[in-house]
Design brief:
39% helix; 111 residues; alpha+beta; three-stranded antiparallel β-sheet; Arc Repressor Mutant, subunit A; single chain
């Protein structure tokens, strides 16, 4: 059974509002990869948190896997760094996060 940690104000997040956690890396990657490829092909500037929230993507088994996903997309030529923005996630108190943009190769792959 998964435990639920209340917020600092004592409220408990609704079950439907929380994203599920994937059991293993390969399953998680298969679920999230297409959404980030689509984001890269769109030509928009995005953060990983924005795409995850927009598509209600599952959390990886380990939170450090978000960084590995970003690295893989960049290494495979789908994304490039675009700059920095304040994170929209309240849990990180609007700290700075990298923004990403798809490459011309990503747009060609989607065509």
């Amino acid at each position: 059974m998964t435990s639920i940690q209340p917020a600092l104000d004592g409220t408990v997040p609704e079950q439907s509002a929380r994203r599920q956690r994937a059991e293993d890396y390969e399953t998680w990657l298969a679920q999230v990869w297409p959404k980030y490829i689509d984001a890269a092909a769109s030509g928009r500037t995005f953060t990983f948190a924005e795409i995850a929230e927009e598509h209600r993507l599952p959390e990886p088994p380990d939170s450090h896997m978000w960084g590995r996903l970003a690295t893989r997309l960049k290494e495979e030529g789908y994304t490039r760094t675009a700059g920095w923005a304040a994170s929209p996630r309240p849990t990180v108190h609007h700290s700075g996060v990298r923004t990403w943009k798809g490459t011309a190769a990503a747009r060609r792959a989607a065509a």
